[in-house]
Model the fold of this input.
Amino acid sequence: MNLQRRIGVVALLAVLSVALGYLFNRTQAIDLDAQNRVILNLRELQQLDAEWNVNILRSHIGVNADYDPLTAPLPRMHQLQAALAGALALARGPEAGAAYGELVRAMQEKEDLVEQFKSQNAILRNSLVYIPPAIADLKTDLNGLERALVPARTVLALDAALNVLLSDLLRYNLVPDPRLGAQIGHNIGAVMVLRAWFSPDIRARVEELERHAQAVLRFRALENQVERRIDDNASAAAMDRLATLFDRSFDQVQRDRQRFRGYLFAYSGLLLLLLVWFARRLRNSYRIIGKVNRDLKAANETLELRVAERTRALEAKSEQLERLAMYDGLTGLFNYGQFTQLLQRALMRAARRNGSVVVMFIDLDGFKAVNDTFGHATGNVVLQLVARQVQAKLRKEDVLARLGGDEFVILLEEVREREGALRVAELALAEIRAIVDAAGHPVEISASIGVSGAHGPEALARGFEALLADADQAMYQAKQDGKNRICFGKLARWDGAPARVPAPNPPAESATMD
Done:
């Protein structure tokens, strides 16, 4: 009988120990590093996708000199997708796998669309580069020897048709209206009829011009269709859905951990009661029971300490991730992703209140010389000085962001006059030119500033991409006009009216306006 009782006690202790080990293991069954890696990978993939969209827009408007920015992020994006596939086991249920499948399909579709965009944009860009100088040269020859060989009325008719063709093609490139396309086709036919009066050289050049004009008509419409399909691509939504599923799964794991921790504490209490009962029944085992009791207490304290440490680590990393997602690490300014969100909200407020939104695109002049002469560390100091000094001249409600490299952008609201925007741009330009020393090195920099504005419901209808693109184009115009100046976008609006464009003035030492 004593032997059977001892066997029963040993078996009970074994069962209790197994249960304790199981509960303790469930409270430790969270790999916080793996969860953080999943979150970081998703955030990086979303950022790369957003930068990809920006580079598509920059290629569309001709800012990018080649198509390398459209292919450069693909290897890293493929790596991140593979890493997310390996982490699907951390998510519970089949929904995460389905969301990942949607993401892969959307990304593959987007890659295919970008390849179509590249091929079509290359042809379109080539034709747009060819047409203006070709027409100019053709018009010059028409007014030369050809005027003596062909009736003047025919020369004038072809000259006028070429003028209209060039104007219509440039307008069609900006806004591909089908009616304008039909008008261009009719004008091309008229030019082709008139070419028969001229020399073989002129006819051959007119035919080459006709081929390039037809290419603009065809590929501008095709490129716009591809861009609309890229805009409608569901990659961003799939990323958001996958992130939501991972977050939900991780939250559930945390809740399970807390629940098993409660079970462990309750179970520990039960063990303590059993130990007291065994202490009364087995006084000879008092020392052993006391040691087990102390060990359990130490294990609980260690568990609480680990839980607190892991919780603090997770909170710190979450705060770090949130800051990285919103701010530029060098200057502390808002980054591109956060700026676009703030700009979109500003456009919505302008639509509701019939207000104004102004965007200033800033690109530093002379910054490359600073980097080449004194190194990137000094260049970083210059960027920090620009951010600090320009920010000091803005209102609290104004937004200054860094897009990357030496490009900054300012967002203003409720600036209803062109002169108000100009004053802010001049202040920013003056502050940048005032930077003459960085980390003990003499520097000489300025800025080219492009300004665009939108007003009322039209601001929201145009969208933040068009507003940024107009300011960007104005900045590049300032670069072309000699740098160290301010140019206003062609589509800028103030109180719903187009910007007044004064007669051109000679460049001055201070800013100039287009």
